[in-house]
Design a protein that fits this description.
By secondary structure, the chain is of the alpha+beta class. It has helices at about 15-25, 65-80, 100-110, 155-165, 215-220, 290-300, 360-370, 395-405, 410-420, 425-430, 450-460, 465-470, 480-500; strands at about 5-10, 30-35, 50, 85-90, 125, 140-150, 170, 175-185, 185-195, 200-210, 230-240, 250-255, 260-265, 270-275, 275-280, 315-325, 340-345, 350-355, 440-445, 445-450. α1 packs parallel to α4, α1 (about 15-25) packs across α7 and α8 (about 395-405) packs across α9.
């Protein structure tokens, strides 16, 4: 069946695809987004989760990227204050590595390259006798502290998809774009779902935001020989039981010139990462290797007083950076900036190479600028001032106080966690629920049927891992049996929905 052409078909439901779909839909385009797995099923849920300028990129003279990313911190903090918040980073000075004067210059640039409104600037620190120095080895006596931000990366993707849908976009998950050809001045694309069913979509233009598969998609679906290269650089993280008190993070310099982050994670844990491992090709999902685990334990162990052992690791994850191939050999030095490749003609094809979570909104704006000539009625940029779903509030603590007053019989710590996930949408999710008995089946780890039902209806959650590892991180707290029970419950719910 041939359908009416849509304006834009977006391939890929990571941060870049959903960000572009949202921006385009808000400018009046009719958009379809196809993601072959789950939203944020690849790189966009496997990041270090920093909304940052990238202090280290200054050493690679990436001033354009760092300036844009630093500026975006302030914008994004306002657009999604439930899932994005400021953090302070403690950088212990290592006498054998970068000299203090060099770090001071770097931090000065970091403080001044872009407008800073809410984030405090950098300061020097005396770590001896300071609680921030307490978990560190005693030789780290001095250091620095600066600001960056945190984001729940997988939720950032879900919220962009929800917003795009509210603006009229159609979001299709478990749906791959398997073929596309130009015909009579527009694209004819074949979309194939998980069951092998196909659907034809006619589109005036296509955005290829397939992340690490940007080239594979050009070759496989479009039958092209791409002129641009991509470097697949795997990065892995480990999650341990909480290693230190306080809300600050650490950034450690490694002897190999890389940096390592240790970040408070999901209240009870510490996130440690990351690595840079060049891959020749990508077969399915990325996994942390034994060597990467050893590297992360050893690098963090250079700084923390208490030993870190393998049995402290509760989870690990890996993702693949889809970096634009700039010819650089060292995986850590390949540009982190993005490149948008436009193939014009009657029906445009725009391919996205590289990018950061932090710059996804600006990347989408740049994509729209490139596509403007093909869509003369395209509206102006708008995403800088419009909060993401659930983010239309200014103070998280005020939002929480309101929720605590509204739901006095629900556990305060649980409400805080849910407010972080859903922001101002939480009352809509909870409806008339007053007590724990109203929340439905308890799947463990603070996950109840009422939220799973919302995630299935509103956020495209289809199986247990979508819920446990992407829409929430309850996977950190549930047992295998609880996961099985959730999977069975979701399958029942889905078949009930299909019967209705
Ligand atoms: C280890 C690591 C740490 C990072 N840390 C940070 C950080 O702290 N801060 C930061 O700002 N950035 C960070 N990044 C970078 C950031 O995560 C990525 O740049 C970003 O997530 C890339 O998003 P994307 O949408 O381009 O790709 P992806 O998220 O990979 O999305 C592409 C999607 O396309 C889908 N797809 C592929 N082919 C097809 C097809 N034919 N049809 C339909 N769908 C298809 C895939 O299933 C996938 O979901 C990090 C990255 C890594 C790997």
């Amino acid at each position: 069946m041939q359908s009416e052409p849509v304006d834009l078909l977006v391939i890929g439901g990571g941060v870049n695809g959903t960000g572009i779909a949202r921006d385009a839909a808000g400018r009046g385009l009719k958009v379809v987004l196809a993601e072959r797995g789950d939203l944020a099923g690849a790189t966009s849920a496997a990041a270090t989760k920093l909304i940052h300028g990238g202090l280290r990129y200054l050493e690679q003279y990436e001033f354009r990227l760092v300036r844009e990313a630093l500026g975006e911190r302030e914008v994004l903090l306002k657009l999604a204050p439930h899932i994005i918040w400021p953090l302070r980073f403690v950088l212990p000075h290592h006498p054998g590595l970068r000299p203090a004067w060099m770090i001071r210059i770097g931090l000065f640039l970091y403080d001044h390259l872009a407008r800073r409104v809410s984030l405090p600037g950098s300061v020097g620190l005396k770590l001896t006798g300071d609680p921030r120095g307490a978990p560190l080895k005693p030789e780290f006596r001095r250091g620095f502290e600066y600001s960056d931000g945190w984001v729940d990366d997988a939720r950032l993707v879900a919220l962009n998809a929800m917003s795009a849908q509210e603006l009229g976009a159609e979001i299709l998950t478990r749906t791959a774009v398997t073929a596309a050809r130009r015909e009579n001045g527009q694209w004819q694309a074949t979309l194939t779902d998980a069951g092998g069913n196909t659907r034809q979509v006619a589109a005036r233009g296509i955005v290829n935001a397939a992340g690490p598969w940007v080239r594979d998609t050009l070759i496989g679906a479009f039958g092209q020989q791409p002129k641009n290269g991509i470097r697949l650089i795997k990065g892995s993280h480990i999650v341990t039981r909480r290693l230190f008190e306080g809300e600050h993070c650490y950034i450690f310099q490694n002897a190999d010139g890389r940096v390592l982050f240790a970040i408070p994670y999901e209240q009870d844990f510490t996130l440690i990462g990351t690595t840079d491992v060049a891959l020749d090709h990508l077969d399915g999902a990325a996994h942390i290797s034994e060597a990467e685990t050893d590297y992360l334990i050893a690098a963090a162990g250079e700084y923390f007083k208490a030993p870190i052992t393998r049995d402290m690791i509760v989870w690990s994850f890996a993702g693949v950076r889809p970096l634009y191939d700039d010819g650089e050999n060292d995986p850590s030095a390949i540009t982190r900036d993005y490149v948008l490749d436009l193939e014009g003609g009657a029906a445009p094809l725009l391919s996205v190479y590289g990018g950061k979570l932090t710059t996804y909104r600006r990347l989408a704006e740049h994509a729209m600028e490139k596509l403007q000539p093909f869509y003369p009625k395209l509206g102006p940029g708008w995403t800088h001032g419009k909060p993401l779903p659930g983010g239309d509030f200014t103070s998280f603590e005020a939002l929480l106080a309101d929720l605590l007053a509204r739901y006095p019989q629900l556990d305060a710590a649980w409400l805080r966690r849910l407010a972080r996930r859903h922001g101002s949408h939480l009352p809509a999710l909870l409806g008339d629920a007053k007590t724990i008995a109203d929340l439905g089946e308890d799947f463990g780890g603070g996950l109840y049927a009422i939220e799973v039902d919302w995630l299935m209806r509103r956020e495209w959650a289809l199986d247990a891992d979508d819920v446990l590892w992407r829409r929430t991180k309850c996977g950190l707290r549930v047992t295998a049996a609880q996961r099985e029970r959730l999977a069975a419950w979701m399958a029942d719910r889905a078949s009930e929905g299909a019967r209705r």
